[in-house]
Amino acid sequence: MLRYDVVVIGGGPAGMAAAIAACDSGAKTLILERDVRLGGILNQCIHQGFGLHYFKEEMTGPEYAERFRKEVKKRDITVMTEAMALSLGADRTVTALSPDTGLVKVQAGAIVLAMGCRERTAGAIALPGTRPAGIYTAGMAQKLCNIDGYLVGKEVVILGSGDIGLIMARRMTTEGAKVKLVLELMPYSSGLKRNIVQCLDDYGIPIKYSHTITRVVGNPRVEGLYYAPVGADRKPVLSEEQYVSCDALLLSVGLIPENDLLNGLDVKMSAVTNGATVDENRMTSLEGVFSCGNVLHVHDLVDNVSEEAEIAGRAAARYSKGELPAGDSVSVSACDGVRYALPQRVNLGDGKVRLYFRVDNVYKDARLVVESGGNRLVGKKFQVLAPGEMGSVEIDRSAICGDVTVRLER
Amino acid sequence: MNTICIMCPMGCGLTIERVGDEIKVSGNTCKRGEVYGQAEFTHPTRTVTTLVRLEGGGVASCKTALPVPKERISEVVAAIGKLTLSDDAKIGDRLTVGDGEFVFEIVITGTPSSC
């Protein structure tokens, strides 16, 4: 059996940052990555917009990944690529499979989960109509385009306005396809405002809010689809159905943290984030198992992923050396317009802790309030809060005097 | 004019107007927003990211070294589409594209072999 202080599962932005931080904290560190190289989804995100916060410099996804790959290489970090983590034991053993090593078992002092997320598919949203060729998740179309060099269609409709969908609207247009329409079920976009501007408005691509697909047609390839506005109950108004022809449909309808490895383990999950619940060190309810990046909760900015992963990596290294004391903690919960706040637990102590949160609707001129045991710790005004944009506030741990709630005051 | 700043994920709402000889930007929360707002008002530019062919059949990703005039994006993509680079292209390689009056520089941002 192999032995490492810290085993990081996943070599994307979260995994690389966690491994670097763990190594710098003195831990013998292993990264298990299932792809042929490190970098994760960044490798296919060839657009600009990464790193402004973390590196104070705007760069593309592959460049951001390269920065971290170089930092990994500089250090004594073992990287196993094409290595699939098959199972995880409560005793912190990881069973993995790779062409180089065959089946291996690794005993870890601490584990960092950094497996990222996967996209919701046509099946996951029960897309009505036939199941022809030509329906892709936006990220799959992105990989086929940017890594493999294939354009998946010439006349494209996109369902959902998540960031990847918006980015792909521009990408497909740049490469010569006609993006005819973007349909969004909600009355607002789940993507960043700037992506509506630079990916749709710049190219005159129409977006219809509060609209959805009622039927996909075509066999064996998609020929078109029917769509309709939705009522207040988000059900389509079939009498107003319209048709649009297309040869490809991209889905950008949400991301699911890829936590299958935790099945059967006693890890407390959040029904809102679909990730584990964690404390400020990003430790899950299973001692010595940490979680960070999109497998913990879906982020909109990789810069935040890197920062979060460093917290997890450092803490995992400390845990493996027995230097992470267990103490009393309070719970952090969200209500009144706040969908979730993370971490969900905070250990009592000194220093500051940053709470990340997401709201459930678009709010203007709202105040985010953090309370603990009846005391107000934070009251911060925001001009606009939207579900597509994660916010954060810092609290002073020494001021905590009971369970913490995060809510909106309007 | 009103627009949304694309310089960072905050997406500040900008109002841009000409006051005398000056172009005034309001609604921005940083200097980058002001510069962006003025450029949007006078001559919008964008950094273009696309792919460039490699001899071996693969593709590398690239970006324009500087933002280019927005109305020339399709020309930029077409010019990059005519290139074929050798397979040993590396992240950070720069090359000059175009001829005559419209010349721009691109930077390789990702290659299949960067790992």
Protein model, in words:
The complex is a heterodimer of chains A (410) and B (115). Chain A folds into 3 domains: 1-117 and 255-326, FAD/NAD(P)-binding domain, CATH 3.50.50.60; 121-253, FAD/NAD(P)-binding domain (3-Layer(bba) Sandwich), CATH 3.50.50.60; 327-410, Sandwich (Immunoglobulin-like), CATH 2.60.40. Chain A is built from 6 helices and 27 strands. Chain A has helices at residues 13-24, 61-74, 138-146, 163-174, 193-200, 302-320, and strands at residues 2-9, 29-32, 48-50, 59-60, 77-80, 84-88, 93-98, 102-113, 117-119, 135-137, 155-159, 178-184, 207-209, 211-217, 224-229, 242-245, 248-251, 255-257, 289-291, 329-335, 338-342, 345-347, 352-359, 363-372, 375-385, 391-396, 404-409. In chain A, a hairpin with a 4-residue loop joins strand 6 and strand 7. Chain A is globular and about 65 Å long. With 115 residues, chain B is α+β, with helices and mostly antiparallel strands. Chain B has 2 domains: 2-42, no CATH class; 49-110, CPE0013-like fold (Roll), CATH 3.10.530. Helix content of chain B is 18%, strand content 42%. Chain B contains 2 helices and 10 strands; from the N terminus they run βββαββββαβββ. Chain B has helices spanning 31-42, 73-81; strands at 2-4, 13-19, 22-26, 45-46, 49-54, 59-64, 68-69, 84-85, 94-99, 102-110. In chain B, the strands form 3 sheets. A 5-stranded mixed sheet of chain B has the order 8-5-6-10-9. Chain B has a 3-stranded antiparallel sheet with strand order 1-2-3, covered by helices on one side. In chain B, strands 4-7 form a two-stranded antiparallel sheet. The termini of chain B are far apart. The relative contact order of chain B is 0.16. The mean pLDDT of chain B is 93. The A-B interface holds A 36-39, 43, 46-49, 52-53, 59-63, 65-66, 69, 81, 145-149, 174-175, 192-194, 196-198, 202, 300-301, 389 and B 3-9, 11, 46-51, 53, 58-59, 61, 63, 70, 73, 77, 91, 109-110, 112, 114-115.
